[in-house]
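#structure-requests
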Amino acid sequence: MTNTRSKYLRKYRANRKEKGICQRCKSQATEGIHCHKHARMLRGPKHQRIAMLCRYRRQWNLTFAEYLLLKKFQKGRCASCRKRPIKRRLAVDHDHKTKMLRGLLCRRCNMVLGFLNDDIRLLLKMIAYLSNPPALWVLGKRYAKGRY
């Protein structure tokens, strides 16, 4: 009985694979025998690099060789703060209006640019604020108490 069931399952799975239907949710399979959502859930650490390469190719038309060339040019460091990433890989930065690639940034610098909406004027205002804080003129030098 077990042998019959295993034959049935093999035949069933092969049939589903040929038709391109996800084995989990029965929707259209986009990646092998699973839809995009379930294929991502099933990926382990060894597949993350392949997924990254596919995403870079799909979103920015960037090959892995080009990514490595850019990374080598930047000496493996963030193009903005010049620090090496510790946990995460460098993110591909691009202009949201023109879609032009600019370089590789660490997560922190990439998020700062995102919060500033790539606005140079706003960034210059932030630099002016840090260089000349208003509290210094109004209150004089005053330091926070407690742990920060």
